[in-house]
Specification:
Blueprint: H1 2-7, E1 11-14, H2 26-41, E2 45-48, E3 69-71, E4 78-82, E5 87-91, E6 115-122, H3 138-143, E7 148-153, E8 158-161, E9 165-168, E10 184-191, E11 194-202, E12 207-214, H4 221-237, E13 244-252, H5 254-262, H6 264-276, E14 282-291, H7 302-312, H8 315-331, H9 342-349, H10 353-371
Parallel strand pairs: 1-2, 2-3, 5-6, 6-7, 7-9, 12-13, 13-14
Antiparallel strand pairs: 4-5, 8-9, 10-11
Helix pairs in contact: 4-6, 5-10, 7-10, 8-10, 9-10
Length: 373
C-alpha cells in the first residue's frame, strides 16, 4: 500500500491469497479493509481476485469493502472497466480452495481499444511446491489477446512472457527459509495505452537467505567458523538493510566432520555467536552440517561397530543400558559436563537407551578420530 501511494498508482490488482483461511477474529478483515481504504483516499482503485487460501468456501466472513475496491465473484469471469483510464480488468475468484478446472478458458475476451489486464490465481503449467490449481498453459494465455496477465499463487516473482506480459508478482513477504530473496510487488508503467516498463519492487520487512559454506579440508572448528563468517557478510549485505534470517549449511569432512556431528548443538551455538559478530540484524534459523561420509574414518574398530549396531536393534540390551546408567545419573550434579558430553548426558538423564548408545558412539568415534591425527 505504501508503494502504491508513493508511486501514485492509478489502480492496484491483487491476484489472490489476501487472507490465509478463515479469520480467527475480526481484526484480520478490519486491517485489510483499513489498508484498502488508504488506497481509496489516495484516489487509487483496487481489484481483487481471491485464490485458494481465501476462496469463498474458506473465508465465510466478509466486511464491506470501501468505495473503489472491486471484489471479483467466482461464478463467472467479471470485467471492471475504468473508462477514464482506458483500462479493463478481467478476472474470476475461486469458489473452492481446490479449484482444478481451467478457469482461464472462461475469461472474457479483451475489450477493443482498451488496455486489458487479466487477473488470475494459477499454477500456470505447474510449479514446484505449489498445488496445480486453475491449470492452464502459457501459450493459452498469450493467445487470449489480453495485454497483461497478473498472476497469483506462486510465491516467486517471475516474468513468464513479454508482449503480452505474463507475470507472477510473488508474495510480498517471505514466510520461511524456503522463500528466500527479495519479495514484493510489481510496478507496471503505461504510456498512451502501452506497457513500457515492468519492475519488481521489494516490500519485505524481513529477508530469508540460505548461506552455503564449503569447508571441505578445514582442520578445526575455528577454521570452519571463519568460513561461515566470510559467507555471512555478503549475505547480510544482500538483504539491503533488512533484518535477515539465515540458514547455514556447511560441508565438512575428516575428523572435523566427526567432531561437529558428535555435538551439533555446541557448534550451532558457536555459529550463532560468530553471526552476532557480523550483524545485529542477523538471526540464524538453523545450522545444517553436511558431512562427506565417504571420507570419514569411523575411528572405531569393526568389532565395536558391529556390537553397537546389534545393541541398537536389541530392546533388552537397550533396557539394560538404561537401568545400568540410571543410578549413576541420579548422583550427578545438575551442572556437570561440558559441550562435548552434553548430548550423552541428556540421553542418559532421559533414559533413552537408543539415543544414549548413538551419542556414545559418536563421541567415542570423534575422539578416536582426533587421536589418530
Amino acid at each position: 500500500m505504501d508503494l502504491a501511494i508513493e508511486e501514485g498508482a492509478a489502480f492496484v490488482v491483487i491476484a489472490g491469497d489476501l487472507y490465509d483461511g478463515a479469520w480467527k477474529d475480526q481484526s484480520t478483515g478490519q486491517f485489510a479493509i483499513a489498508q484498502l481504504a488508504r488506497l481509496t483516499r489516495a484516489g487509487i482503485r483496487s481489484v481483487i481476485a481471491f485464490g485458494n487460501h481465501d476462496a469463498e468456501s474458506r473465508v465465510t466472513r466478509h466486511l464491506t469493502a470501501p468505495e473503489g475496491v472491486y471484489k471479483l465473484k467466482s461464478a463467472k469471469c467479471e470485467s471492471v472497466q475504468f473508462d477514464d483510464l482506458g483500462v479493463v480488468v478481467h478476472g474470476r475468484s475461486y469458489k473452492e480452495a481446490a479449484t482444478t478446472e481451467n478457469i482461464a478458458s472462461t475469461y472474457c475476451p479483451p475489450a477493443p481499444g482498451m488496455l486489458n489486464v487479466a487477473l488470475l490465481h494459477t499454477a500456470l503449467d505447474g510449479h514446484q511446491g505449489h498445488a496445480n490449481y486453475a491449470p492452464c498453459s502459457l501459450g493459452e494465455l498469450q493467445a487470449a489477446g489480453h495485454d497483461y496477465w497478473a498472476l497469483g499463487h506462486v510465491h516467486d516473482h517471475a516474468v513468464r512472457a513479454d508482449h503480452p506480459h505474463v507475470v507472477f508478482a510473488g508474495n510480498t513477504q517471505g514466510r520461511h527459509i524456503r522463500e528466500t530473496g527479495a519479495k514484493g510487488a510489481v510496478v507496471v508503467r503505461v504510456e498512451e495505452g502501452t506497457i513500457v516498463h515492468v519492475e519488481h519492487r521489494a516490500t519485505d520487512e524481513v529477508r530469508w537467505a540460505h548461506a552455503r559454506v564449503d569447508a571441505i579440508g578445514a582442520a578445526d572448528p575455528m577454521e570452519a567458523l571463519a568460513a561461515i563468517q566470510a559467507q555471512l557478510r555478503p549475505t547480510v549485505l544482500g538483504a539491503d538493510g533488512r533484518p535477515l534470517a539465515a540458514r547455514v549449511s556447511i560441508k565438512v569432512d575428516g575428523p572435523l566432520a566427526q567432531r561437529l556431528r558428535a555435538d551439533p548443538a555446541w557448534f550451532e551455538a558457536e555459529v550463532r555467536g560468530h553471526a552476532a559478530g557480523v550483524s545485529d540484524a542477523l538471526w540464524i534459523e538453523r545450522v545444517k552440517i553436511i558431512a562427506n561420509d565417504a571420507a570419514l574414518p569411523t575411528g572405531l574398530p569393526p568389532e565395536l561397530l558391529e556390537m553397537l549396531s546389534q545393541a541398537l536393534e536389541d530392546p533388552d540390551c537397550l533396557r539394560a543400558v538404561e537401568n545400568a546408567i540410571a543410578p549413576l545419573t541420579a548422583k550427578l550434579p545438575a551442572d556437570v559436563g561440558d559441550p562435548d558430553t552434553a548430548p550423552l548426558l541428556a540421553s542418559a538423564r532421559g533414559r533413552d537407551g537408543a539415543a544414549l548408545v548413538r551419542a556414545a558412539k559418536a563421541l567415542v568415534a570423534a575422539r578416536l578420530g582426533e587421536g589418530a591425527h
